[in-house]
Amino acid sequence: MDRAQFQKLYRDYERGRIDRRTFLQVSGLGVAAAVIAACTPGGGAASKPPVDPNADWKPPTGVGLGDTLNMTTWPNYHDQATLDKFTSLTGVSVALTIFGSNEEMLAQLQAGSTGWDVLVPTNYTFETYGKLKLLEALDLTKIPNFDAARYEAKFLEPAHYPAGSKDLYGISKDWGTTGYVVNTKEATAPMTSWKDFFDMAQGDLSGKVMIHDYQLTSIGNALKYHGYSFNSVDPNELAKAEELLLAVKPHLFAISSDYQPPMRAGDAWVAMAWTGDGVQLNRDIPEIEYVIGSEGGEIWSDFYAVVAGAAHRDAAYAFLDYMAVPKVMAADAGFHGYPIVDSAGIALLPEDFKNNPIIYPDAALLSPLEFGAAVTLTDQNRADLWNRVKSA
Amino acid sequence: MVTALLLVPATAWYLLLLVVPLGILIVFSVGTRSDVGGYTPGFTFQNYLDLPTRWPSFQNTLTLALIGTILCAVVAYPLAYYLATRAGQKRTVLLVLVILPFWTSFLIRTYAWLQILGSNGIPAFLEALGVDPKPVLLNNRGTVLLGIVYNYLPLMVFPLYVSLDRLDKRLLEASKDLGANRVRTFLQVTLPLTAPGLISGALLVFIPMMGEYIIPSILGGGKVYFVGNALVDLFLQSRNWPLGSAAAIGLIALVIVTVAVYLRLTRVRGGRDVSLI
After folding, report:
1. Of these four, A64, B18, B156, B170, which has the most CB atoms within 10 Å of its CB?
2. B240 to A214: CB separation less than 8 angstroms, yes or no
3. Between A104, A253, A262, which is nearest B237 by CB?
4. Which residues of B touch A253 (CB under 8 A)?
5. How many whole angstroms separate alpha carbon A309 and alpha carbon A135?
6. Which tens digits make up the pLDDT trace of A213-259?
């Protein structure tokens, strides 16, 4: 059965055209689930079990998970098959809310009553979320498949609040960089740096370049042009970045974080981009290449977190545990194209994924990159600067 | 008693969805932004004093909404005139055609323009005809103007059509009998008598255009900035709710002032009261 057939079947099941039994039989999931159930040792494991890379996930026993889970996340970030499988194993369907920036997620959480259960925040948000008590400190006994020993420390570090404490507010989903995509068939001159990016945008490539509609990355990369820190909140350095952005603005094709459609259509030739979009564009249109600015820029990591006061808290923990299974996360990565952190998950990735330089770039390119800082997200001067650039 | 009951739903509606939010907006607009963004209670007029820094977006909105309204009128008047006086039996079909676009989602119609004006649409066609360099039709003020005129046109056509349809044709004959030519009849009889339709049509398109957000964000590519876009950015990206609230009140004030001036001017010229219906 291919994916389209499965999806049709699943939709029929959802709409009640066929019953659960038929669905499981026809899709083969019932058999698979039964086999898995028969093969895995029963009972709640008290101590952390050793990792079996081929192990499937088993829902927690004795807990009512309900039938819904609300997850708030980013575009093109989850394989529907991964979510569907969770649904078939637990009966919990996952409803996605898609956002464009951490600021917008934060604004909604501050306003309250979102009804969200699972959130996919980025590294620099935890300090703010922790301070505002918007997320809950994870109860790791409910996530038995997660084992911090398999995670490179620098990727988990940001999720501890207060910094350095034992309380963990998120488990790694994946990580990536912020660079730019170039359609090398149209933009033929070699581009390697943020200097190239902003100079070409005002020169030969005028009218063909896009920057994010996101202060953190657009200001950060303009700061890199001048050699400053991606996270600078120094008024003089920000003034220089503003000057550059105002000069570039009339030459831009657009200011938008939805750059895949114009890159695919050929309306834009160069666009500020995140790793996974680079992978997805490059997979479909090989002449679109992904560049990490040689001056540096941003490295980031995203997490799964549980929203404080989540209505479907048990389902949320079950989902985090499901995504902590190496096999599950490796399969999901195959779709979204972002590098994962879990060493057991990485071991399961296909060779061409592990060797893809967009996904796992050279160490030399990674070393100058900076993680975004909490203040970079919330600083009023940066917020005002971005507003002025956009309204100019 | 029954009369009072009849008013309950509308009163509750306006209290809950107009008066209360407006009150919240006013309270927020005199507060301050907290360190991490959002709202902290306070009492300051600083946010209003900061509004001039957002003037470009107000100016842009006002300019494009005014030009958009005028373009709507220019396109809609001849069409409505034709429908009311010349269309004959085709009238019903043509009227349906005017509303037809409303059968599809506003968002989809706007995205459709993205395809039509994008690189693979009209520019590709022009390139094939030998236009060099290939023109860029997206993400400028003209595109946004096209988008708003296209979307709001029917709201202008209908009030005009109604007033032209109701026009007492005997007055036109009288004008002719008294020796006026066609142009003079139009300017002195038809136009003044259909002014109420024109005025209400203009209000129906101008006010929503002032609050427009979707069209500039889809067809303007983040470069053509309306107050609506500034509000979204202030509330969501910058999370400066107090300044956002002040800007929202500024927009309401700008609309009220513009409409008041407009009604004042048209009343002086038309010499008659305007009904919005």
Report:
1. B156
2. no
3. A104
4. 136, 138-139, 221
5. 8
6. 999 999 999 999 999 999 999 999 999 999 999 999 999 999 998 89
| Segment B222-259, tens digit of pLDDT | 899 999 999 998 998 888 999 999 999 999 999 999 99
Bond from prior residue into B133 cis (ω within 30 degrees of 0): yes
CATH architecture of structural domain B24-270: Orthogonal Bundle (1.10)
A107 touches chain B (CB under 8 A): yes
> Smallest Cα–Cα separation from A122: which of A155, A147, A161, A148?
A155
CATH 3.40.30.10 fits A3-37+52-173+301-353, yes or no: no
CA B231, CA B251: separation in Å to the nearest integer? 10
**What are A96-133's pLDDT values in tens digits?**
999 888 988 998 998 888 999 999 999 999 999 999 99
Tokens, residue B138: 């997206």
* CB pairs A-B closer than 8 Å: 93
Count of CB atoms situated within 10 Å of the CB of B202: 23
What integer pLDDT is reported at residue A10 of this predicted model?
Answer: 55
Instruction: Give the pair of three-digit tokens for residue A208.
Output: 């063909």
Domain boundaries, chain A: 3-37+52-173+301-353, 176-299+361-391
Q: Which two three-digit tokens encode residue A167?
A: 């309380």
Which comes out higher in pLDDT, residue A88 or B136?
A: A88
Q: What is the largest CA-CA distance in chain A?
A: 66
Domain boundaries, chain B: 24-270
CATH superfamily label, A176-299+361-391: Periplasmic binding protein-like II (3.40.190.10)
Structure tokens belonging to residue A243: 């000057």
- The answer to whether A346 and A93 are in contact (CB under 8 A) is no
Chain B CA closest to residue A248: B223
Q: Decide if A388 and B53 are in contact by the 8 Å CB cutoff.
A: yes
> In this complex, which of A106, A252, A255 lies closest to B37 when CB atoms are compared?
A106
The span from the CA of B69 to the CA of B202, in Å, is: 6
- Count CB-CB contacts under 10 A for residue A159: 24
Quote the pLDDT of residue A34.
44
**CA-atom Rg of chain B in angstroms:** 23
Q: Please, are residues A253 and B221 in contact by the beta-carbon 8 Å criterion?
A: yes
